[in-house]
Amino acid sequence: MSTTENATRPDETTRSPLRTMQILYELTCDRSAISLADLSVRLSLPKTSLFRLMKTLESGAYVIAVAGGYKMGPAALKLGAAIIQSREFPNCAVPVMQHVSENCGETIILGTLADNRQEVVYAEVVDATNPLRFSSKAGSTNPLYGSASGQILLAYMPESELNSYLDSVKLVKHAPGTIETVEALVAKLAEIRATGVSSSLEGLVEGVFSIAAPVMDMNGKVVSGLSISAPSSRALRQKGKLTKLALLGGEEISRILGYTGTYPLTNNNPRTP
Questions:
Q1: Which CB contacts under 8 angstroms, 24+ apart, belong to 53-61?
Q2: Which residue positions in the chain have pLDDT lower than 50?
Q3: Distance in angstroms (rounded) separating the CA atoms of residues 156 and 261
Q4: 3-state SS assignment for residue 39
Q5: What Rg, from alpha-carbon coordinates, does the chain have?
Q6: Disulfide: which of 44, 55, 192, 213 matches 155 by Cβ 3.0-4.6 Å?
Q7: Which residues are paired to 230 by β-bridges?
Q8: Is the four-CA dihedral 215, 217, 220, 223 of positive or negative sign?
Q9: Prediction pTM value
Q10: From CA 228, how far away is CA 220, in angstroms rounded?
Q11: β-pairing, 141-143 with 69-72?
Q12: Cα gap 134→114, rounded to integer Å
């Protein structure tokens, strides 16, 4: 039999496994029970078909029937706990970063706070696929004030720590767009908190533009900045697209880490648990 004949045709696939995961996801999004009718609408699935799936899941203790509908069962909760235990940061961010890269072809960087609290560490880097690119290496460090991801970390830093940083920071010019005064840095951080994103034009490297979005953990703490970096000649023409991709990537990683609040964090869209 030929390879073509062996391949699975779309009409031979079953959607039951996918529906199962969609059901469990919907149940995790509501603390109260969800009725069969409500689930049917959410999943665009006939109630008769959905009922059979729910009975199967109930038999394995993945869901339980309660007054008003269904809730997560003990088997599903154990599965969730196992997933959380196996989830490691920043490694869990790499698939999202790769997806963002596939949609723009630029360098994607996940920046975290260095132990000295003065620098940003490029914890993960996905290299650009475009021939003309900005390159960086995982593990490299840069001053917080100079990079888009570093500015994200500063903008959402606890006030006391930020004030201490501002009192001690020595601003060194690295490129034409490097922030040169504490007053300018304070204004920049206020802009980030107002918009939920940070942009840097030649802040560290001449001819490079970066846009970054925050990544939050399950407690709503900003733990990193996800940035897209590219030659400014190309990136500035795509600023809107790159901003959207950075925000989508930042939110997706945040959700993976268990954050369920509003996104992005702005003055008009404050942090919620």
A1: 53/16, 53/19, 53/20, 53/23, 54/23, 57/20, 57/23, 57/24
A2: 1-13, 272-273
A3: 15
A4: helix
A5: 23
A6: 192
A7: 209
A8: negative
A9: 0.70
A10: 22
A11: unpaired
A12: 22
